[in-house]
């Protein structure tokens, strides 16, 4: 016995409301990832980084993490999450929930290292703290971008779900119905013709939107998505280079670190032998 496909549908109003919420959160996460700067215009860590400003980055990430968590919890409790589309959306939301929570401690550690940097005069310690700041801050921003991408994936699932809805049956005005005395053969052709016409009608096609406008919108959307993908790729490459440079610095520092000097007690034991 086949299941009723309507049971797999999320109500249109609920779907549109959730898409709006996802779009708003996705934009906030993307904006936070792009506007939380550590490096100055020259691409260097400031000599006196602001602890308060960097700590604010952690606070903002905490708020975003809370909002994404609440959205995911609300959707998981709803019956919509048990549908086929809902399961796919929930998978994206689960990833989006985890990412900002990882960003918070990395931002906080960046602020902690900034505070230690202000009190340190040792060049080696300052280099160590500076590189840690770059690595932690870049990692935190990457987590925010991944969360934004996951929410965008959830919104896409819902948009696809709207587009996959079966077309509504054609409306036949009672005035246009044939007389009750008509034979069944006379009534069948108009109904069959209406069904064929409805089946051939494109999904999600609004009569007030022309094909030209729809094509222009799709082209602009594709250009926007391509631009965002290129931007994310450039930022990810920059952060990868920074993290790789930091790892190389730590490896070089460990090679140059001299072995510990023997303590007086150790020297006495050596002479005793």
What is shown here, in short?
The chain contains seven helices and no strands. By secondary structure, it is mostly helical.
Shape: elongated
Order of helices and strands: HHHHHHH
User: In CATH's first tier, which class of one domain applies?
Assistant: Mainly Alpha
CATH fold title of one domain: Four Helix Bundle (Hemerythrin (Met), subunit A)
Q: Mean pLDDT score, rounded?
A: 76
CATH-derived architecture of one domain:
Up-down Bundle
- Percent range for β-strand residues: under 5%
- Number of distinct helices: 7
Q: What's the gyration radius in Å?
A: 30 Å
| Biggest pleated-sheet summary | none
> Ends: how far apart?
89 Å
The helix/strand class is: mainly alpha
- β-strand number: 0
Low-confidence stretches: 180-189, 198-207
Kindly state the percentage of residues in helix: over 70%
């Amino acid at each position: 016995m086949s299941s009723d496909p309507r049971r797999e549908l999320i109500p249109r109003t609920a779907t549109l409301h959730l898409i709006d919420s996802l779009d708003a959160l996705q934009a906030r996460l993307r904006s936070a990832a792009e506007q939380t700067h550590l490096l100055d215009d020259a691409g260097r860590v400031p000599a006196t980084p602001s602890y308060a400003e960097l700590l604010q980055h952690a606070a903002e990430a905490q708020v975003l993490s809370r909002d994404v968590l609440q959205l995911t919890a609300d959707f998981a409790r709803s019956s919509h999450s048990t549908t086929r589309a809902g399961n796919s959306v929930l998978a994206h939301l689960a990833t989006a929930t985890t990412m900002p929570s990882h960003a918070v401690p990395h931002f906080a550690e960046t602020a902690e290292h900034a505070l230690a940097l202000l009190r340190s005069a040792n060049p080696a310690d300052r280099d160590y703290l500076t590189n840690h700041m770059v690595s932690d801050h870049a990692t935190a921003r990457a987590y925010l971008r991944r969360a934004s991408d996951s929410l965008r994936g959830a919104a896409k699932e819902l948009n696809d779900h709207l587009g996959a809805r079966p077309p509504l049956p054609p409306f036949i005005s009672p005035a246009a119905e044939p007389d009750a005395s008509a034979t069944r053969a006379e009534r069948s052709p108009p109904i069959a013709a209406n069904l064929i016409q409805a089946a051939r009608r494109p999904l999600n096609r609004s009569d007030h939107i022309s094909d030209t406008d729809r094509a222009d919108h799709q082209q602009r959307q594709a250009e926007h998505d391509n631009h965002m993908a290129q931007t994310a790729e450039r930022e990810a490459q920059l952060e990868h280079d920074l993290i790789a440079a930091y790892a190389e610095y730590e490896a070089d520092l460990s090679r140059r670190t001299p072995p510990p000097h023997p303590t007086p007690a150790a020297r006495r034991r050596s002479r005793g032998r």
